[in-house]
Design a protein that fits this description.
The complex is a heterodimer of chains A (338) and B (310). By secondary structure, chain A is an alpha/beta fold. Helix content of chain A is 32%, strand content 24%. In chain A, 47% of the residues are buried. Chain B folds into two domains: 227 residues, Rossmann fold; 78 residues, no CATH class. The longest helix of chain B has 18 residues. The chains are: A alpha/beta (338), B alpha/beta (310).
Chain lengths: 338, 310
């Protein structure tokens, strides 16, 4: 059997605004393999969460086109009854905000047990309770027997996020989608949660989609990285290539805007991420944020080009891109970023 | 010259209980914090959520009633009742964390930015409009947008409206409470660059409150680390990042994700090692209540909270 766990084929997720559909995820094709962490990076509004929700089938009124092939079967636009057999079992999600992802009126233990009741109806009550406590132990919650009886408001943010993770891994999913799992947390707790996700990958050999806007988190966790801008993937490569030899102007701008050693001035990307309604649907979507690059350098219909094995870049403008605060000559001919 | 001196600042919140609603205990949000900021510098205050860093900032500017301690701003004690605090407030302004909730959604940009001007300066309508337009231009927004409402702007633009309001009265000190935490990286870069630019232009002093050590490292000259209302370490950028002494600081520094994927394994090992050290030597750094000890000086610039042993 192949190593492919999830394959998105030309996925397009559109939302209706005033009787017209606008694509928030536009023609995305990616694969996730077993035992692999795929990082998806992008600013807010780039469509990364919309992508995750599409895979999980959590959008209510969105139009989904293209294929979502999970373990060889297309699950795009499947019936909820069918999806419910997969969701929480073979495929699970860690949500961003642990405060809203948990039911405030339900005991912690019962919330975790709920997914076990649904997917493993043959489990006895005793077995189930034991399994929940084992899960709480696994995600590093101290005094699990006591926490079982507690309510979400009695736990700190980090502990709540662990509970959300415990729910997600309760049935040992093969695919785990983590949507900004540490954004709401302090750094020390973030480090612990990331460590936990790593352990899960090593122990359960799951495929993980890690969605984040934090480039540091991606650098530490991902095997491969996809960069999203305005609903499209603009660059995809293995993590080392992406951080050392990134090509797309957007990736390079993002990397340059993070405070780093010996950097005096941070790079600022001109303009703003366009709203869903105002997205340019023709030509290079990033072009209006790098107006100093000659329009003729953009492709008419930008495609992903394979510049090295496994390294894809959208549009041809990367060949002519330079940072305006640097001298032009150096970067047109020289190899950018060394 | 020191523009701000804080001496033994304490902010306690009472815990009330029982049918008479009597005070039964205090939460010591800020528990004896002292520091000075030199004019024109950026002083970073770092800590995790609940460490008291925001309360410190709010206590200094007077948004929180302080329990005891002294705040000397520009040579005048602003905590004593005799002080004319209104004049002081003009020179001390605050940038708030969340650009979505710190601007009144029902006010137009002109009214938001002109509010401090209306409080302190008598300006005619025309002068006022001109000043607001100048300020908008200074923060890089179009002067035509004065009649717009906050919801018409993006997060970064809103934060710049907040900054325009803060600098309207040409303050000397700005307390910036997590000014970029709610923003995307590229917008974050925009706001940080801008804060540095106006610092040079207007000779501002910043008290920069943040939980993000990477940003603090980029922005600040001096840095203090807070934990449970107390300082655990204070020093220059070099002291804190290259030579951290307190285990809590080490743990924070180790937890910063490294942007270079090649250092991944090294970073993970280092973090484990620090975590082990944290568990084994916890009692050397924290007292019986889990609080930091008093500060000991280990060099001219570097203070660390260690038990008194010399």
């Amino acid at each position: 059997m192949s190593n492919k766990l999830l394959e998105l084929q030309n996925l397009k997720t559109s939302f209706r605004i005033e009787d017209k559909y606008y694509a928030a995820v536009d023609d995305v094709s990616i694969t996730v393999n077993k035992n692999e962490v795929l990082g998806i990076v992008g600013e807010s509004g780039s469509g990364k969460s919309a992508l995750a929700f599409s895979v999980m089938g959590l959008h209510n009124r969105a139009k989904i086109e293209g294929n979502i092939v999970f373990k060889g079967k297309n699950i795009a636009n499947s019936k909820p009854s069918h999806l419910n057999k997969i969701r929480g079992d073979a495929m699970a999600m860690i949500f961003q905000d642990p405060l809203t992802a948990l039911n405030p009126l339900m005991k912690i233990g019962d919330q975790i047990a709920e997914t076990l009741i649904l997917h493993r109806p043959n489990m006895s009550n005793k077995e189930r309770t034991e399994h929940v406590i084992e899960l709480l132990n696994m995600v590093g919650i101290p005094r699990p027997v006591y926490v079982y009886e507690q309510f979400p408001h009695e736990l700190s943010g980090g502990m709540r996020q662990r509970v959300v993770i415990a729910i997600a891994i309760a049935n040992r999913p093969e695919l785990l989608i983590a949507d900004e799992p540490t954004t709401a947390l302090d750094v020390t707790i973030q480090a612990q949660i990331l460590d936990l996700i790593r352990t899960l990958k090593n122990e359960m050999h799951a495929g993980i989609i890690l969605i984040t806007h934090d480039l540091g988190v991606v650098a530490e966790m991902a095997d491969r990285v996809a960069v999203m801008y305005a609903g499209q993937i603009v660059e995809i490569a293995d993590v080392h290539t992406l951080f050392e030899k990134s090509k797309h102007p957007y990736t390079r701008s993002l990397l340059n805007s993070v405070p780093a050693e010996g950097q005096d001035k941070l790079h600022v990307i001109q303009g703003i991420v366009p709203g869903l309604k105002n997205l340019p649907r023709k030509g290079c979507r990033f072009s209006h944020r790098i107006p100093w690059v000659d329009p003729s350098h953009h492709e008419e219909n930008p495609e992903l080009h394979e510049v090295a094995p496994g390294h894809f870049v959208r549009c041809t403008c990367y060949k002519h891109f330079y940072f305006p605060d640097e001298t032009k000559e150096v970067h047109i001919h020289g190899n950018p970023r060394g | 010259m020191a523009i701000l001196e804080v001496e033994d600042l304490k902010v306690y919140f009472p815990v009330k209980a029982g049918i008479f609603n009597r005070t039964v205990d205090f939460i010591k949000a800020v528990d004896g914090v002292s520091f000075t900021i030199e004019e024109g510098k950026t002083y970073g205050l770092v800590g995790e959520s609940g460490s008291g860093k925001t309360t410190t900032g709010r206590g200094i500017i007077g948004l929180e009633t302080i329990t005891s301690g002294r705040v000397v701003f520009n040579g005048a004690d602003v905590t004593s009742r005799k002080s004319k605090s209104k004049d002081m407030r003009k020179d001390m302004q605050m940038i708030f964390q969340d650009p979505y909730s710190s601007l009144n959604p029902r006010k137009r940009v002109i009214d938001i930015i002109a509010e401090p001007l209306r409080n302190y300066e008598r300006l005619s309508k025309i002068e006022e409009k001109k000043r607001v337009q100048e300020l908008l231009e200074l923060v890089g927004l179009s002067p035509e947008s004065i009649m717009k409402y906050p919801h018409e702007f993006s997060g970064g633009q809103r934060q710049r409206i907040g900054i325009a309001r803060a600098i309207a009265l040409k303050p000397k000190l700005i307390i910036a409470d997590e000014p970029v935490s709610a923003l995307d990286v590229s917008v974050q870069a925009q706001v940080l660059n801008f804060m540095q630019d106006i610092q040079k232009e207007l000779g501002l002093t910043y008290l920069f409150i943040s939980h993000d050590l990477g940003i603090v490292k980029h922005m600040c000259d001096e840095i203090a680390i807070m934990y449970k209302g107390r300082y655990v370490e204070q020093g220059t950028k070099y002291d804190i990042f290259q030579n951290p002494q307190h285990i809590y600081t080490k743990r924070l520094v180790a937890a910063i994700p490294d942007i270079d994927p090649r250092n991944r394994e090294k970073q993970f090992k280092f973090r484990r090692q620090v975590q082990k050290e944290y568990e084994s030597s916890y009692s050397n750094y924290f007292d019986n209540e889990g609080l930091a000890y008093g500060l000991q000086s280990i060099s001219d610039t570097h203070l660390v909270a260690l038990p008194e042993r010399g």
